[in-house]
Amino acid sequence: MFKNIKSLLMGLVVLSFMVGCGGGEPSTPQKAEVSADAKTIYISSKAKYDGPIAQNIKSECSIDSQVMTWIQKYAAKHNINVIINGKPKANDTVLKVSIIDAISSGNAGMGHNKYVVISGKLYKGKKLKSSFKAARRSGGGYFGAYRSSCSVLGSCAKTLGRDTAGWLVNPINKSKLGDDYLIR
User: Fold this and answer.
1) CB atoms < 10 A from the CB of 3, how many?
2) What is the pTM of this model?
3) What pLDDT digit, counting tens, does each position of 29-74 carry?
4) DSSP state letter for 51
5) Quick check: 115 and 135 in contact, CB under 8 A?
6) Given 2.40.128, 2.60.220, 3.40.50, 1.10.3470, which CATH number is that of 41-182?
């Protein structure tokens, strides 16, 4: 019996390390195919930092590029063609995204407490058509003790990408998305 318990415990330890070690950067999504009749939206490769964001988040984490990549991936699932760093023409649709707040408190030992707030403005040509604000928080999940702060913030960026892509389907002006209690 001792041998079975020892094997079980060893298996759990190995499993926890395998799950915990996968938490660095979210995997880069593959470009999804959209149909020829999809609407096209242009975005930059990085969201603009526009608020009281700690320098360590800006320099150590890549949430500014992650959120844009995830917007593109999830928009394709809604048959929206998002072009990163393209050259929009005068009357094309452009989404400008800013990170307006990000907090990275706590740690793996004490528990993570992270959140990211973004704003987006959708332009048709030079005319503002719609805007939104979105926020997401994370405590790191079940194996949060094995994740880095940037990994947890990356999870927030991924979910914000999904929220934004959903909003692009029907962009209602002045929408609040996600964990809206964090939006000021």
Assistant:
1) 7
2) 0.78
3) 445 566 666 799 999 999 999 988 999 999 999 999 999 999 999 9
4) S
5) yes
6) 3.40.50
